[in-house]
Amino acid sequence: MAKSGLGQAGQATAIKLVEVQRIDRSGVSSIIRAITQDGCCIIKDFTDTETLKKANEEVRPYLKQINLGRAIYFPQRPDDLTSHFVDKTTSVYYGETKHTYTSEAICSIGITFDIGTGGKAQRLHRDDKNFHVDHEDQTKMGYRVGLDVMMAVTVPGVKTTYENRETLAIPGRHLWGSDRAPKAEEAILAEMETGDAWVMLGGLYHAGGANII
Ligand SMILES: [Fe+2]
């Protein structure tokens, strides 16, 4: 299917690319497989219309008051996914006794954002830059659980479309080493219905699209 991607200056370019996998929230093992392969997927029916309506109503007064983009809404933590991809178990010796500990993922940030008309597209980037991650190339050996330090979950308050700044991403580019640059023409759109959620590894190249409504 022909999709519109992100041009050099954020303009649309007609390109033919793979689709982001869309998987129902009950298929946890399928979701894990999709994220291992692509670095991302869309979780269908992640939440329900009532919850979304309530969240939109709660944040609306704040979005009206502020310059858009302050922390307000904390999405539900998808435990099965973060425990698979982010939790880490390591061992250390105390004297001659070996101790094993598991560090569980924490919710380090929760934000609400509303990109108004005319909002520019972001450049493709990796969110785990905030944690100083230096990616080794995994394209040959395959994805290795334990190297990722974060995941992101986005629950759109409205149906996302090309026009209203849906997420762009390059599935599979979570495997690249730090020395490879993402190409804008490879980015595809992740259109979502209300109630869906976007989930991705911190190492996946992605960007917020422009709002051209
Ligand atoms: Fe980002």
Protein architecture, described:
- This is Phytanoyl-CoA dioxygenase.
- Pfam families: PhyH.
- The protein is α+β, with helices and mostly antiparallel strands and 213 residues long.
- It has one domain (2-208): Sandwich (Jelly Rolls), CATH 2.60.120.620.
- Helices cover 16% and strands 23% of the residues.
- The protein contains 3 helices and 11 strands.
- The strands form 4 sheets. Strands 3-4-10-7 form a 4-stranded mixed beta sheet, covered by helices on one side. Strands 9-8-11 form a 3-stranded antiparallel beta sheet, with no helix packed on it.
- Strand 1 (2-6) and strand 2 (12-16) form a beta hairpin.
- It is globular and about 60 Å long.
- The two termini are 23 Å apart.
- Mean pLDDT is 84; it is low at 1-16 and 68-77.
- Bound molecules: fe (ii) ion.
- The site of fe (ii) ion has 3 residues, from loops.
